[in-house]
Every structure is written in structure tokens, then in C-alpha cells.
Model the fold of this input.
Amino acid sequence: MSADQLPYQVADLSLAAFGRKEIQLAEHEMPGLMAVRAEYAPSQPLRGAKITGSLHMTVQTAVLIETLVAIGAEVRWASCNIFSTQDHAAAAVAVGPDGTPDDPKGIPVFAWKGETLEEYWRCTELALSWPDGDGPNMLLDDGGDATLFVHKGAEYEQAGGVPSPAPGDPEEWVIILDRLRNSLADHPGKWTRVAGCVKGVSEETTTGVHRLYEMARAGTLLFPAINVNDSVTKSKFDNKYGCRHSLIDGINRGTDVLIGGKVAVVCGYGDVGKGCSESLRGQGARVVVTEIDPICALQAAMDGYQVATLEDMVSTADIFVTATGNRDVITADHMSRMKHQAIVGNIGHFDNEIDMAGLAAWPGIHRVNVKPQVDEWAFPAEEGRAGHAIIVLSEGRLLNLGNATGHPSFVMSNSFTNQVIAQVELFTRTGEYPVGVYTLPKHLDEKVARLHLDALGVRLTQLSKEQADYIGVSVDGPYKPETYRY
Amino acid sequence: MPLLAGLMERFASQRPFSGLTIAACLHITAETAMLVRLLRAGGAAVRLAASNPLSTQDDIAAALAERYGIAVFARAGVDRRGYYRHIEQALGQGADLIIDDGGDLVNTLHTTASAVLPGVRGGCESTTTGVIRLRRMAAEGALAFPVIAANDTPAKRLVEGMCGTGQSVIDGILRATNTLLAGKTVVVAGFGASGRGVAERARGSGAQVIVTEIDPVRALDASLQGFRVLPMAQAAPLGEVFITATGSCDVIAAEHLAAMRDGAILANAGHFDVEIDVRALAGLAAEVHRDVRPHVDAYDLGDGRTVLLLAEGRVVNLVAAEGHPPEVMDLAFGLEALALAWLAGAVSPANTGGKLTVGVHEVPADLDAEAARLVLATMGVSVDTLTAAQQAYRESWRIGS
Done:
């Protein structure tokens, strides 16, 4: 039996017991997810759902996966990042709560920490391929790679073949095209069929949502999508509070430098950048923000941060973090002018915010791996300047997942409860969602928040009927108009 | 002021100042009135002068004189001569104990009023500025009696410097200018307790804060707290609001003023009006518009730039706002009252056979702890006490892990 035919591919099944222990700890910290698991268990709303998930294979994701299974779904899973898998979590999911490493009874998961790009896309394809040759009827995506694979597969099937990569195409795109070319040859028409079966996708993150809206605008979106990212209980909580927690965790684990007293540049002051800035400031760093959006730049200034351009700061700052969702924010040229031992990391979804290819191609550069996910890149001496080295975390991929363990369970419980509710909505009320991109209605967003209050000992005040009438809402919510920004 | 209220009962029964005259030089505010009444309840005859010509609240002065039998010599806005005459009047025919705030009373005692100096047994000084002067006097052998430096105890540093000055200096600047701090660059000179309190609160209001320091330890502290630390020469062209909190003079000098941005706001949180070189500012100005708002003078530099000086460079939280909030003064004055009562028992007339030598002394640590304990009790905060085993562990070098 070849590796591709195994029901799962993980690093080491013997890690399952450790993974299970951590899953149990996480369950306690994920009250929202456990509450919807209990609420939906009797009615099994996802019975018949075949969900392919492409989302960081962590301990918290394991609780999500097992929640989907507990309410009726069949699930196959891949990670959405080559470094973000926690191998013990993947092992525990493959073994399942009732199995053993010798007799795994869990769900098919294809993920391990440190995949190559070829392996990553093979895992994505495996997660999209049911053993009977069929595909999923639901997608749960983070960054849009599963959605992209299905869409491109269907598109090239219609076009009659996969195009050749153009010169200068990114390495990853060449790999995707190769994989699709093989797939089209082996299983003609498969992706058109899968795209027809998929009732919808729930998308986790800004980057993936951005792709979905582009496809919807271009008229190429093939099935409805729920934008989970823009639920308030997702974007504010996960992006802001999650990154506030895990950014410094990643920097500490990666480098163990004292953050107090350092000058830290945060590129981007969206929700993620706000959380990052706050956490670095909280550790005593002097934070300087870069922005292209005048509103966010003004917000940063009013929050007391110096706002400068990267050009202003590049040769004096100690720590650089990209959180823009855009490409080429820190270029190789920037890195060539940084201080010796400057730390460079990205917390945006994709690895194109820092120009790693440009860095690798810098004449005379020398890379030394310090430890996993920590590399020193030594620039050669130049006229007027001795050689210097910078430290790049997680090869420019999101460092909070690569160097640390991503968002903490409680934060993920918020976004994953949104995910479960979105899956139930799309699967059980398919007719109400014509092809397009939707956000969850506000009462469901409020429900997610409500499910997390008890665990924190929050005592909520109840509107009286008179008060509710006065502001024109129902006593049970929703309490705010759609336009409210929180 | 629950601490002073609690001490009022204790002093009324113990009467630690029975038969003693206390001369005091303090900002005449509602909080000071409480302290003075407490001393009176403890049996003292109190004679009070102001420690700043601008900070006197006339209604308080009047009430103290009329209702509580205090001899008060203070009026808001008196000139320099009147100010010192008031201090001499407070010393009058002599005092057994003194309380000072800035050192002007002690200075007067050792110079123009030296006739009554021999009768003074000891005193308390409230401010850092005053203590610095006293230590210089003691070093030169000029100081004639023991003084307790009540400016600086661990509890007071926290509550008064960090919290009280921090909050009220921002309050003073806001009342005087109504400027939005968010997004502004605020330069705080000095990162002692007061400077740190101001810097943290300015940051809390959304300002970008730059700290200037001469002390490398404090500068390191500020850096590690995430503040940008620059020399004043580099900060001068960047700042939009400047706050001095150093206890030193000429912190903002002519060359800094010359480099400032149009609209820069200058405020001093230190005790004396010497931290900003106001004379140099007047020298640079083509025209001065007094009181463009209350406590704001606009110095037109003649080149299109105007610099705003608050409170004439005097202590901005007292002049443009209401000084420390009562909670802060409660601890400071409670501590001072405890120290003074302790001093009354520890010194004897004319310094013969007293327990304290002539010089500047710290507040005994148990008095600081007592004051903190009393304040905590009024806040309803309970704390742990060491068990006998813990006490033994702390005192032994034989017990390890």
C-alpha cells in the first residue's frame, strides 16, 4: 500500500496519548465549542455532511474536528500551513478517542510539522479525496487553499488542461499546477463533479475571505461561502486577542530576547497589528507602526504609537513583525540594511509579506539554521559596513504558529464555534444561501459570545422591555445594527 | 481623607503635641486643612504660611483662621516679598516643631528669622526639592536641628509621585489647554516617581512619550518600560507637550526653546519654577500674550512660532488643577503627622539629650508600614501576615529548599 493510500498521514502515531491529554485540557478552555457539541448532538444536523477541512492541525482544531464528528459529519483534514501542525494533535485525531496507535479509529488527517510544499499540496488533495473516489460536499477552509484547489481543478477541466507555469511564477504555484495536472490525468472530471457537490465553504481568515470576494466579484465562485473571519467574535477576538497572546510567545520561544526596551516595528494596524502592538508594548518595547491606510495610521497615532515608514525605521529597529495581508512588505533590500541580529517575523497568513526568495537570492548570503523555525541569515560585508546577520522566524511564515502554538484555546473556541454554526447553516439551510459570500447573522455572532461568558464568570445585564423598546431592539438581541463596529 | 480622620481620634486621646507650637509652610488646600486640624487635635498651636504664592485657596485659609483657630498667613497671588513675610509671621515668636514644603521655611529660619532658630527641636520636610536643600545644608554644617525627610518613603513614592503627580499634572495640562493628548508627542523630563507617573498616564491617554534623564539607571528603566529615551536637545524639536519633573534647574533651556515646534506646550511638575528657563523664554519672545486662557501665556517667538507656557512655569498640577487628589494627600499627610508625633517624643527642647542627631533622617520604616496598613484598612483591603514558620524561615540562613 503506498503512502497515499493510508487512511491518514501524520508524523508519529505514538504521540497520540500526549495529544489526547492536551485535547482534554483544550476542551475545558473551549466552552463555546463544547456547548454547541452538546446542543447539536441529539439532532445530528451534520449527518450526511462530508467535510474537508484545510486548517492548522493543532490541539484546538482537534476539538473542532471532533465536534463536527460528534454532530454527524464525516471529516477529512489537512493543515493549511507547512509548519503549523502539532504532531501530537494530528496523531490523537488519527487515533481517535476510542482507538490506539496500533488500532487507530480516528479521522483521516494528513498533516505533519515541516511538510515540503509538494507534500503540503498532496495532503490538501488527499483531504479532498474520499476513498470511494468521491469528494467532499462541504469545505472548511483557512486561507482558501482547499477552495482554490477545487476551483482551479474545475476551471482547468473546463479549459481542457492545466496551463504551463509562466516564467517568474512563484515556486508554490508551479507545484499546484503540477499536482492538478496529475489529478486531471488520473481522475478526469473529478473537480467539476466535486464543485457541483459542495454545498458551501466556511472560511476562517482574512486572506481566504479576500480571495472569496474576488471570485464572487469575478463571477467565478462556484458555491456559497460564509465569511467566518468577519464575525465579531472571530476577527476581533482571534485576530486581536489571539495574536496579542501568541506573537510574543513565538518571539520568546524563538529567540528568548528581552523585549523590554527594544524598538519593535509592526507593519499593519488592522486587528492583528493592534493586538501585536499592544502585546509588544505590554512587554516594554517601544512600538512603531507602519500603515498605508490613513484611518488605521491615525488610530495608531491616537493610541500613542509612532507611525513611520519602514524606510525610516529599517536600520534602527530591533524587531520587525508583518501583519498586513499584503506582499513584499519587507524586502531583501530592507533586510540588508537592518541592524545586526534584528529579528524579522510575519504573523500574516501567507509567507509573502517578507521576501524570503529575495533574501535567499541575495549575493553572498549565508543561512545558518539555529533551531527549528529559527534561521540566521548572514549578509556579506560590504564597502563601509561589516557583515551582519538577521534572525528570521518560521521562514517568514506566520511565527505565532511556527514558533509557538498559535492562538490559545479560548480564543479559538470563539472562531471555531462560528465555524461549526456556519457549517450547520450552509449544510441544513442550503437554499437560503445562493452562491455568494455571507457573514453570519448577528444573532449567531451574539450567541457565540454568550456561550463563552459563563466560563469567565461574566454577569450579563438584562435589558428591560422598556429599555429594549427605547433603543429599538428585542430584549434577546440582536443588540446592534449590522453597521456597528464594536 | 480616611487616614487623617482615623488619626484624628488617636491624636485627640493621646495628644502627642500637647503644649507645643508647630510652624507650618504648606500649600493652603483643603487637604492641608485636614492635616493642620489633626495637629491641633493633637494638642499643638499651629501657625501656617503658604509654600507657594499661587497655590493658596483663600477660602480654605479663611476657614482655618475663623473656624479652627489656626494662625494663617497666606493670600493667593502675593508677591515675593509678601510671600517671605508670611513665612516670617508664621514663625512669629518661635516654634517647637516645623513642617516645611520646599525648604523655604527652614531657609528663612536659618537666615532672616534666625532669632527663633534655637527654640526649634525638629521638623518634617514634605518634598524632594526641600530635602535636597536640607541635605546640602546638613553637608555644610548649616542645619541646626534634626529633620525627617517625609518626602520619600516607599509608600509615599508610589502613591504620591506615581499616582498623585501623575494624575494631577495631566489634569492641570488638560484644564489649562484642553489639548487632546492622543497622538501627541509628550516629552517628560525626569523618570523619578513623578516623571514615571506622568509618563505612564500620558501614554495611557494615547500620547507617544519621550523621556529625558541624566541617571542611567532610570533611563534604562524608562527604556525597558518601552519609552523612547532621548537627550533634551533631540527631544526638543519633536515634542508637542513638555513636562519637567526633575527637581533640577534649566532642564528646558534657551537652546531647547529655540528648537521647539510651533504650538509647543511647556509645563513644570517639579516644585520650583526653575526647571523651565522662563527668563530665556521671555528673552527669545518678540511678544508675550498673558493669560490667553487661564494659566496659559503665549510666547510669540517672532518667527511664526508660538510657545505656550503653563502656570508661569510653576508647579502645574497645583496651579492649573487642584494638586494631588485627597487620597494621595491623605497618605502623605498621615505619614507626616505620624512622623511629627514620633519626632515630638524623640527630640527634646533645644536638642539636649534627644534621641535624634542634627541632620536629615529617613522616616522610620515601621511608621511607613503603619501608614500603609491604616490606608489599606480604610480601603477594605486585607493582607496576609507571616506565620511563625515563615518568620523563622526568613530569619534563618540554615534553612534552604
Observations:
- The longest helix of chain A spans residues 232-255.
- Chain A has a mean pLDDT of 95.
- The first strand of chain A starts at residue 50 and ends at 54.
